[in-house]
Amino acid sequence: MKNIDSWGHLRGESIYLDDVPELTGTLHGAVFASPVAHGVLRRIDPSGAIAVPGVIAVLTAADIPGANQIGGIVPDEPLLADGQVHFCGQPIALVLASSDAAARAGAAAMQAAIDPLPAILDPREAARQGELLVPPKSFRLGDVDAAWRDCVHVFEGRADTGGQEHLYIETQGAYAWCTEAGGIRIHSSTQGPTAVQRTAARVLGVPMHRIEVDVTRLGGGFGGKEDQATTWAVLAALGALHTKRPVKIALHRMDDMRMTGKRHPYTSDYKIGLAADLRILAYEVTFYQDGGAAADLSPAVLERTLFHHTNTYFVPNAHATAYSCRTNVVPHTAFRGFGGPQGMFVIEAAIAHAAEALGIDRADIQRRNLLQEGDEFPYGQRATGCNARPTWDGLERAGDLGQLRTDVQAFNASHTVEKKGLALMPICFGISFTKTLMNQANALVHVYQDGSVGVSTGAVEMGQGVNTKITQTAAITLGIDTGRVRVETTNTTRAANTSPSAASASADLNGKAVEEACEAIGARLLEFAARRLGRPTAAGLVLRAERVHDGATATALEWVELVREAYFARIALSEHAHYATPGVHFDWTTGKGAPFSYHVYGTAAIVARLDVVRGRYEIETVIAMHDFGRSMNEIVDRGQTEGGIVQGIGWMTMEELLFDTEGRLRTNALSTYKVPDVYAAPARLEIHALDTEGPPTALFGSKAVGEPPLLYGIGAYFAVRDAVLQANPAARFAFSAPITPEKVLMALHGERFRTARSTAGHAVAGD
Amino acid sequence: MTTPLRFVLNDADVATDASPGMTVLDFVRGARRMCGTKIGCREGDCGACTVLVGTLDGADVVYRAMTSCLLPLANVQAKHVVTIEGLNLPDALSPVQQAMADEGATQCGFCTVGFVVSLAGYCLDARQPSDGAARAAIDGNICRCTGYKSIERAAARLTRALADRPGANRLEWLVTQGYVPQSFRSIPRRLAQFIPAAAAAPGPLPAATGKATVNHAPVAVGGGTDLYVQRPEAMEHSALHPTFDHAAWRGVRLRDGRCEVGAATTFSEFVESPDIQRLVPRVGLFLEWVASSPIRNMATVGGNLSNASPIGDMTILLLGLGAEVHLAGPAGTRTLPLRRFYKSYKTLDREGDEFIAAVSFACPDARTAFNFEKVCKRTHLDIASVNTAARFETDGSVITGAALSAGGVAPVPFFLAKTSAFLAGRRVDAATAGEAAALAVSEIAPISDARGSAEYKALLLQQLVYAHFLTLFPERVRWEELA
Fold this sequence. Notes:
The complex is a heterodimer.
Chain A lengths: L5 H6 L15 E7 L5 E7 L1 H4 L4 E5 L24 E2 L5 E7 L2 H9 L2 E6 L6 H6 L8 E5 L2 H4 L5 E9 L11 E7 L3 E6 L4 H12 L6 E5 L14 H14 L3 E4 L2 H7 L6 E9 L5 E13 L5 H10 L9 E10 L13 H19 L3 H7 L19 H11 L2 H14 L3 E14 L8 E8 L5 E5 L8 H13 L6 E3 L2 E2 L14 H27 L8 E4 L2 E4 L2 E6 H10 L5 E7 L4 E3 L4 E3 L3 E14 L4 E11 L7 H19 L31 E6 L24 H14 L7 E3 L3 H26 L1
Helix pairs in contact in A: 6-7, 9-10, 10-11, 14-15, 17-18
Chain B lengths: L4 E5 L2 E5 L7 H8 L18 E8 L2 E8 L12 E3 L12 H8 L9 H13 L6 H7 L11 H14 L7 H7 L10 H6 L26 E3 L5 H4 L1 H6 L2 E3 L9 E4 L2 E5 L4 H6 L1 H6 L3 H6 L4 H4 L4 H7 L5 H8 L3 E6 L2 E6 L4 E3 L2 E2 L6 E8 L5 E8 L10 E9 L4 E9 L6 E2 L1 H7 L6 H14 L10 H19 L6 H4 L1
Parallel strand pairs in B: 1-5, 6-7
Antiparallel strand pairs in B: 1-2, 3-4, 3-5, 8-9, 9-14, 10-11, 10-14, 12-13, 15-16, 16-17, 17-18
Helix pairs in contact in B: 2-5, 16-17, 17-18
């Protein structure tokens, strides 16, 4: 089935936040934010803003009726700065005006007296000063300290990954107005409607039932709107409460980029020990996560780093420690992969370090150590349905890797101005929220008396195709055409206490709830059908192809007639169902448990082609063997896979997040922060599906697909690195992503250039 | 206020007294409440707001994709503006939309409309369809969801379908096949009713339009691609000298052994000019690295020169060609070498009442070798870390004259004067290339910024000077001798 939203998308008729029809009297909000990274907020002077024609009000922390607190995991983040500012771009005041332009002019005219304080911009420095967002966490398996003496090869080093801007094409925004009896309705571009509702209630000092949050769809989220859509939604609600007028906030791109968090930059130290046969015997790693100025989702991101720090390898002795470091930049947040990619990069770097030092192929170490059925993860869960080797070996065959290797070698033997590099990237990603309580969802299904169906869940459509999968689920379960099913907006009055659309789990959780609701309605309809058909029980009756069937045989009772008559017979045609993932648990006191309902595996081969003169490169080939389970929608799943790969390549190659020494974001626009364009997508991008049975907790056996493919992108770093080493085997350069053209050129020629210049400099000095 | 602005928006004749400095994006989304056109970045870098602009050319209308966030209403005077609402058929998807749907080429959908509009422009384009041309048509559209492959597959479907498109009566075929609504048939007739904007503004300078105020003196605006990025709020309320459609300043002319390019010539017109293609044979490749298709459809040569960015691609290219700039003012025209036009950062040798009318360069001949190099974080649609152009005149083995330019290495678009002078009389060989590169590096003073460290930029210039030699003289200079 094609994406059910495509008709509206392709005609420009889908409604995003900024397209919601505006009510008369709507005010527009612009945020005045801290211009400094750290300081004492002495005074806020709104007089300049008030003087701007059209400005109606300026709201500050003093105008908050409830708690000035939006922290989700740790209560450490004010909605509007009070007393101190902790990062450039921290909201200080909301300027409300009759037009967007006036609001922005007002915000530009705001003044604040801030006494600067020293800013910490380096997570290692933050850790040294004890500036941690939460206490450090660690995982331990086996006895790593004892294992070193069994290792024939031991390597230590450092590996860093940069942050990543989400760059959803739709910026953040919200639109709120007061409803009767003290209620507030908020249209929000959020992945987490319940988080918005809960936080708005806390900040406004009202019960949650007074806040209604509605989400039609997002123009991309990728994690950036999981927790950080809340600020704008609550500000709009605050504005509506104060002015009794509708308030809309739609961030301009530069404001969005400087005021919202990114994927966490990490800097890490590793130590890896191998046996003579290349088995990894021991691995020790310390992660320093740049969490920014407040916890946001950093603690949970940090946990997933730990869960995935050995990637898809069995490491009998592992010890990982992770620090969530408080720095004076924007609080970083969820981004597709949620800390997992940062953890995996480090072990891949450690393996590359070993391979480069030993003069062997990285793949020899990777393949030697792939997880096998029953192996224990460092968090105590055992690998079941383990597809690590099947995807690797499947890729060898389906991707004809033998030929690929030969081609790359032949190219390198015959070219000097260009070189190619090849990397393999096996992946493993656990599915479920690692916070067990979040693995629940609910669905409300109405069958209307004309046979049409409305479905509400907590899932937010943001391009991942969850609406399509939910439509399929309802249609399959009720045995009707997908055209009869409409997926409603995500609304807290229809789906309460929901988890955000995140962790790749929305289709599994919400789809299972829809399945349960439809099964309950279907069972009632079949009982009624049995009576109607004069049968003692409904046994053997099924709903299929818009008709009641007796086993394989169609009866005379078709769907519309069945529903109409059931309505006349006063049968309940609506159902609310709740689903909680069975079997998942985790104990942080021991660091052990079974946090994931299943794992997704895969392996990709990546080829980079390098221009040795210019330091420019392209990722020309990606071939992946991916573990989809039994895909319920190949178009949607393929799209998620291709998109994730290219986004991962972007993170590893051109997407460079830069803050200056004052803590200001330098890459604050699309002109300075580059994401892949059509030419940057690999010319050859092949996705092969591993033929497996999906696990029962996956919706119809179709495995979660949102986050795992991004991990293949990590291979792009190592493919480019390999190409650089092919051109200059003497190159010594840090494991530091993104591997920008600058880093590549400096690795290729930097040392010689420096030497030549210093020689020339001496010559000049001697003149 | 002057007379109302008139144009055709989709199927509607528009006469509006909106400010000529207002962007088409704000006009369609705000005044007209047509929300299919999306706001992504407001600086021409994402393509979510792409529209087609049709200009009458003889009996035909030529459509170009443009980013409506940088497009002043003044520049669509007497033209056909097409948004997604003007491409939708009543009850069906167009072949472009259908191909995207079939390939699953839409995910969150926010960028989708921009891709549909760009691909519709590809289908309307008279040039030969090809996969490369289809990709070029969407080179200004950023998608964060799909990874582009599904969109490429959709584009490939269109390319196959367009193989049946006849050369003559192209529009009729497109209407019959449902690529565009039937209303497109009436557009040539409707545009012909308008008095051409250029004809209404004779004389050396385009007349100002809109209301000048104390705060907003008239601004000369070409394609708007720099001004609307730098001061979007001010532009809406400014009176404009719209040079974009000033016929006297548009186009490429050959005269007395020189090639003259009007200031209002767009980058697209520059690269499509048969004269330019003959004189600078690889110009198509060079311009593919410069901005994106919609920006090239808007950005003007004069605008790029007057913006004075130290890294402007067209400026560096023309500087390397050894160009002269022709300024028009009340006292007539004045000519000076482009290399002397830039005095310091963003400061030009130009009086307040002077406008750039044209730029010209000596026509390259058989002894000329010309190359342009650019490296940035993203190969396409990015601002260079360093760009450079080189023009050599040789007698085969000896350089008789040279002009080298470099961007991103100084406060101004930089003419490598010492390196250029050094090269005259030198043999074409690796030793010369090496010395030239070292000299070039000694001439510059790059700074560290988001596009790279100072050291990187210096190394990169060395490499790109090597690249000039390796590209232009592969039989005389080999990489192994330089590395």
